[in-house]
Automatic annotation (TrEMBL):
This is Catechol 2,3-dioxygenase. CDD domains: VOC_like. Keywords: Dioxygenase, Oxidoreductase. Residues 1-126 form the VOC domain. PROSITE patterns: VOC.
Length: 133
């Protein structure tokens, strides 16, 4: 349903670095970047797995998004764990350790963190627990 979304951030360089570190365990990298010279006012970068950007961070108006919730798809529960660890290492505030959230559905495995601008970010895997050989 949603093609892409973006957050306006107070400090673009800080947020670019933060999200580069936090989204790496999910396979997201910067796939596009635009400058103020290109747009006239906005600078930002778009993250996604290889391809076109799905999630943007950038600055433009001088205001930052706060209180927005963004959930990133994880392919495995281990990716959710790694996302949370990366967020904590990058200076995020813990907002919910990795674990099942059965009040959403029996296989909902997520982790939550607060980014530098006060947004609630999450990684979630909807698959049953992985079976290892």
């Amino acid at each position: 349903m949603i093609d892409h979304m973006g957050l306006e951030v107070a400090d673009y360089s800080r947020s670019r670095s933060f999200y580069t570190q936090v989204l790496a365990p999910l396979g997201y990298t910067v796939v596009m970047e635009v400058t103020r010279e290109m747009t006239g006012s906005y600078e930002g970068c778009g993250f996604s797995p290889p391809g076109r950007p799905h999630f943007w961070v950038g600055s433009g108006s001088g205001r930052s998004s706060q209180g927005t919730h963004v959930a990133f798809a994880a392919q495995t529960r281990a990716q959710v764990d790694a996302f949370h660890a990366a967020a904590m290492a990058a200076g995020a505030q813990d907002n919910g350790a990795p674990g099942l959230r059965p009040h959403y559905h029996p296989n909902y495995y997520g982790a939550f963190a607060i980014d530098p601008d006060g947004n609630n970010i999450e990684a979630v895997c909807h698959l049953p627990m992985e079976v290892t050989a």
